[in-house]
Design a protein that fits this description.
Two copies of one chain form a homodimer. Chain A is an alpha/beta fold. Chain A has twelve helices and eleven strands. In chain A, strand 1, helix 1 and strand 2 (about 35-40) form a beta-alpha-beta unit. Chains A, B: Homodimer. Probably interacts with PlsY.
């Protein structure tokens, strides 16, 4: 199957100076992929002309007259920016002309627009932001990372289903384990909402491990970690802050004197490999899960390398039929619920 | 002033094989401090006999017949363990025989016991767990780290006051800045509870910076970061997990071949300094703030070095009169509240 991805070429802190080179590099590495670059046609053509033309035949330009500002209120963007590069890219997914859309634009506007245009999968109340993150054993999926501040137990169960299917589709995990982020492993921990969620997860057909704690994310205790968007966002950003602090400290220690700089020189090849391994750009690309179409959010400040990873994430999802899998699983969960309600009556 | 600290010598995963050597080392470094080791007298005497006796004259043993289990339910410990090493250590603070208590025991039981025995400062609803953590600029205080799952705006304001006074007393900060942990810096972010808290903090006499995000903790954007115990606990443990993962990755990269091991050897002195700088043992010792007495919680798995840092934290608090400062500030805050209510009527 040929996969076509719609790219919001104007989104992000930098815009087409990042999205266009990233798109070209990505196409060079992936000969089966087609891209539709959405944005200001003359500007896009001018930027494309600066780069190698060999992949040009797999690039289509879709003109869009507007751009959503990085700080624009989601509801205003939805109302007033009907011809934005973001909106048009999502329309292309809706119309079936693209199998996925990627944007480095304003997260709130992207979520609101995607939800409005694509709608949620039946049985999913609200989409969630999910990310595949590294851990000592491999990769796990954490969601929600900021779309939903407060979540009901039912919504958290839906996140569990979505994360589980994403891990099954993208990582080939059979029956991925699901953990509920809490402040202790015992059942008595957390508030009523968390306890009810644990109960629902236990009754579901998911491979529910039980409560996990913050350190279990990087330990890789479970394949999926479920949490509300407030907690998930704080956890993710705290980790980003710590990673940055470690980089600063390492640089300071190796830069103290000519002697420590010599040590750094000797260790450089290995430090380079370490740096590459924890490079956040490799994990760029968060999935807006629960929609009837694939939408991937790149970090607004992503560079060319980072944006390429977001494009790769979109293609992997498009190639794995993750939405059909989520829809199936949610439908089954709803059937089970109805059946157990009928039995109870 | 001579400071005397009561040590729950039986608490923690290991107990007196950690607490006793740590106490002795600590006394060797701090000639003005006295310690009361609380626990099983014969066992304590046997352990003390294995170590250098020079500081023995500054150690008092207080016999206690019981030990609180690490997994014991707080309410059961409170009811059934009235002669536990933990309870007796806190009693010594209550009676004025010690200026602070340190325990590596069960956090829930320690909090419940401390609250029951010492009571909270007037105007403080619930104590919080606070920790001084490193950031790229220096040190900040984060609270609550797990004592209170759900918090009212009033309680979060109280945490702000307590954290602010702790930073003023221990770090000599004049008018420490206070940030409210949220998922975005804009005022519209977060749920109603967070927005009401921001409003209260803005109206207070605290140096309120506004919302901060997870990465601001390590950036050192504010001196104090206020959050509910659920969010704070997840953030702290996520950071711990990431730090551990980085250590594993560094070890793996440097251990790949004889060549990388050679690189490691060359970089060892600098890597050692880096490791020392981020050593979590240096930040061991969380304060149970809001009580009418100083109680410091050591990590249950702390080793001798870690426990020494918890003892140091207790002594610093005891020497700085932090409780009187918190009490003053809270009283003022209550007065202001009454006055503005009177003006409103």
């Amino acid at each position: 199957m040929t996969i076509t991805v719609a790219v919001d070429a104007m989104g992000g802190d930098v815009g087409l100076k990042v999205t266009v080179p990233a798109s070209i590099q990505f196409l060079q590495d992936h000969p089966d992929i087609h891209l539709i670059l959405v944005g200001d046609q003359p500007a896009l053509e001018a930027e494309l002309a600066l780069h190698d033309g060999a992949v040009r035949e797999r690039i289509l330009i879709q003109h869009a007259t507007q751009v959503v500002g990085m700080d624009e209120a989601p509801q205003l963007a939805l109302k007033n920016k009907k011809d934005s590069s973001m909106r048009v890219a999502i329309n292309l997914v809706k119309e079936g002309r693209a199998q996925a859309a990627v944007s480095a634009g304003n997260t709130g506007a992207l979520m609101a627009t995607a939800r409005f245009v694509l709608k949620t999968i039946p049985g999913i109340d609200r989409p969630a932001i999910a990310k595949l993150l590294p851990n000592v054993k491999g990769t796990s999926c954490v969601l929600d990372l900021g779309a939903n501040v407060d979540c009901t137990p039912e919504q958290l169960l839906q996140f569990g289903i979505m994360g589980s299917e994403l891990m099954a589709c993208l990582q080939g995990k059979a029956n991925p384990s699901v953990g509920l982020l809490n402040i202790g492993s015992e059942d008595i921990k957390g508030n009523d909402n968390i306890k009810k969620t644990a109960e629902l997860l236990r009754q579901s057909e998911l491979n529910f491990y039980g409560n996990v704690e913050g350190d279990d994310i990087c330990k890789g205790t479970t394949d999926v970690v479920v949490c509300d968007g407030f907690t998930g966002n704080v956890a993710l950003k705290t980790a980003e802050g710590l990673a940055h602090m470690f980089a600063v400290f390492l640089k300071e220690e190796f830069g103290r004197s000519w002697w420590t700089r010599l040590c750094a020189l000797a260790a450089l090849p290995v430090l380079g490999l370490f740096k590459k391994r924890i490079d956040p750009r490799r994990y760029n690309g968060a999935s807006l899960l629960g929609l009837r179409g694939i939408v991937v959010k790149s970090h607004g400040g992503a560079d060319v390398t980072g944006f390429r990873y977001a494009l790769a994430q979109a293609c992997e999802e498009a190639g794995s039929d993750v939405i059909a899998h989520i829809a199936d699983r949610v439908a089954k969960q709803l059937d089970n619920l109805k059946q157990s309600e009928a039995e109870a009556n």
